Structures are given as structure tokens and as C-alpha cells.
Amino acid sequence: MKLTGNVLKYGDNVDTDVIIPARYLNSSDRSTLAAHCMEDIDPAFASKVKPGTILTAGNNFGCGSSREHAPIALQASGVSLVIAKSFARIFYRNAINIGLAIVECPEAADEISEGDTVEADLNAGIIRNLTTGSEYRTEPFPAFIRQIIAAGGLIPAAASGSLK
């Protein structure tokens, strides 16, 4: 599985209340969540994010409450991958459950700049910064996580019988 996109970059401790503010949690509509994603930390996010956008972030991305709305909002806005130094564990699981690819790679998170174009081969565990030519290694996804992401989430993967 290869993903390619332009990068938006954020810092440490981006919590779920910043990813999707609590005032929008009364909606489960993906387009509503996408329209308000990251607006408290980056009011221009909705106009900057494009299908395939890759986010880079610092430590503890997705900390805070355990709401599934946060990874759903990112995915619905067009984010295909989040590369961070580390993730809050419940955010990590929620992201995989809804089919949003996320990888921990501190070196890539530090060195990749906003606006760079990045290609990530999640099967091989290789992240390439196509802008600078730098290459980073990360742990490849196990087969069952690749199956969940490819199916669009845990529920579609289980319903299709593709999980082995």
C-alpha cells in the first residue's frame, strides 16, 4: 500500500478537542466533521487539505478523549496518512478501526516540512520525502492492519470476511 501526498505539519500534543472541537460532536455527518476539522488550531485547514494530504506531527498526537470523531474528521477531510513521533494509544486504535493509516516515525516527523511531497510504502515500512530525497524507515503494518485499512475500516473488513 503506497500513499503519496503533500504535507501539513503540526506540533506536540494535538488533542482530539483540537482535531474536532466538542461543539461539533452532535453530528456524525462526515462532511460536517471534515468542515470543522482542526479549525481551532488551524482555521485554514479545511481550505488547505486535499484528498491524499499527509499530516506530520510531534509527540502524543490524538491525546485527550477517546472519541472516534477525531480520526473520522481527519479521514473525511482528505487526510490519507498521519506520521507522528507518537500517538495516544486510543487514537491509534480508533484510527486503524476506521481505516486511517497512521505511523510512528520520529525522524520523519521532525525532518519533513510543511508543503513537502511524501510517499509512504506502508507494506515495506519506507517513507520517502520526494521534495528532499530523504528516506525513513518505520515498522511495516502487519497483514491484518493492512487488510483493515484496505477495506476502509474494521467493520467493513470483518463484514467482507477479509480478516485472517
Structural class assignment: alpha/beta
CATH topology: Aconitase, domain 4
CATH architectural type: Alpha-Beta Barrel
Q: How many discrete structural domains? A: 1
Polypeptide structure, described:
The chain is an alpha/beta fold. The protein has one domain: Aconitase, domain 4 (Alpha-Beta Barrel). 34% of the residues lie in helices and 21% in strands. The chain contains eight helices and seven strands, in the order βαααβαβαβαβββαα. A seven-stranded mixed sheet has the order 4-3-2-1-5-6-7. Strand 3, helix 5 and strand 4 form a beta-alpha-beta unit. Helix 2 crosses helix 4 and helix 7 crosses helix 8. The protein is globular and about 40 Å long. The two termini are 18 Å apart. The model has no long low-confidence stretch (mean pLDDT 94).
Name a few traits of the molecule.
164 residues, alpha/beta, Aconitase, domain 4, 7-stranded mixed beta sheet, 21% strand, globular
Would you kindly provide a brief summary of this structure?
This protein is an alpha/beta fold and 164 residues long. The protein has a single domain (2-160), classed as Aconitase, domain 4.
Which SSEs are present, and which pair or pack?
Blueprint lengths: L1 E8 L6 H4 L10 H7 L8 H4 L4 E5 L11 H9 L1 E6 L4 H10 L2 E4 L1 H6 L5 E5 L4 E4 L5 E3 L5 H9 L2 H7 L4
Parallel strand pairs: 1-2, 2-3, 3-4
Antiparallel strand pairs: 1-5, 5-6, 6-7
Helix pairs in contact: 2-4, 7-8
